[in-house]
């Protein structure tokens, strides 16, 4: 018998009933041929026309956009941004859902990942199932939260600034991003043309008036004269090494959290939501409850946010070691924490530096890895250090759940989990899990 040749299904339309939300913000549906569809721009329970954007007759699953809503969910609202929707800006993929529904759906994704990858129910994870707004993030109903303090615009062939379309190199030119923080919008970089640039990033700090614009020239491109009618520092990304160099003003912005000021150089990590750093520091400190004389690790420490918070609470005989791979971030962390004698920062990858430190025990650990998580090897090492408490800060619930399963193998269980909506209008969510060793004989 001859096999049917594979043929592309891109552009095919299916009338489907939409099932649950999945990791990544899509919802799951099935075609009449029982192929799984991951559909964007829809909500559970809707009846829609889904148009395939990726996949063929042999694909295990297809990607699709909801192009017509036949029976809308009660959670649906008109997307406030004119650039939202299929084929447009790939950023705010959940703005067609009410804010409360966005948080509920994020909670459903976390619950599903915990159960599937770590075998944990919400009760077993010490989680009440809710996703909380960032601290102090209260908005009148119907208003769009303008939370993004850092926005990188890509420049299209005509020199217009815009944002990338979903899974594409194409640019959606925009003249105002609704979720950009006021300080970013005031810089107005998206309002002018940048024919010499490949990208332009606008940054506004929280807790200082620092503003910054980072210019990435096109290959061989010249640097444009930047005249923005605001006091702003300008940096340029070098073509040959990708390094970021100061053109004028400061090479960093000053952020504030937990009553400390943090210098953040370009390329260094800082939470993008203005209330995120404080929200996370508080959740981590409430979970760890550092004591005088504690020894602690802050892994993937960035410019020293958690190392600073713990370092302030452990007295003169405690000690904190931070580990961070970014050279510039390490310089900033050492500068930021120079008043804390008992805090030390090492540069390098956690999996390489940690074994070299010779540390065999510590009281507390905080880890805040990138999206991929810490992984089995690092978690195994950490599980052997005898920490009283571990705080795991996670921006991807799937990576968190995988690592929690490794921690369980290493004798640690989750005591509490909290989830925060630090990325409103998108499917992204942040979690803080507090782990403790399983009591011997339990
Ligand atoms: C999610 S950020 C957290 C930063 C910091 N904890 C904060 O809240 O500001 C992750 C950090 O890990 C760093 N990083 C990524 N991979 C790493 C690795 N393998 N080892 C050490 N640091 C790494 C990144 O440079 C980034 O600063």
Automatic annotation (TrEMBL):
It is an enzyme of class 2 (transferase). The active site is at 395 (nucleophile). The keyword Methyltransferase applies. Keywords: Methyltransferase, S-adenosyl-L-methionine, Transferase. The keyword Transferase applies. GO terms for molecular function: rRNA (uridine-C5-)-methyltransferase activity. SUPFAM superfamilies: Nucleic acid-binding proteins, S-adenosyl-L-methionine-dependent methyltransferases. Residues 7-68 form the TRAM domain. Its EC number is 2.1.1.-. InterPro entries: MeTrfase_TrmA_CS (IPR030391), NA-bd_OB-fold (IPR012340), SAM-dependent_MTases_sf (IPR029063), TRAM_dom (IPR002792), U5_MeTrfase_fam (IPR010280). Pfam families: TRAM (PF01938), tRNA_U5-meth_tr (PF05958). GO terms for biological process: rRNA base methylation. S-adenosyl-L-methionine binds at residues 271, 300, 324, 368. Belongs to the class I-like SAM-binding methyltransferase superfamily. RNA M5U methyltransferase family. This is Class I SAM-dependent RNA methyltransferase.
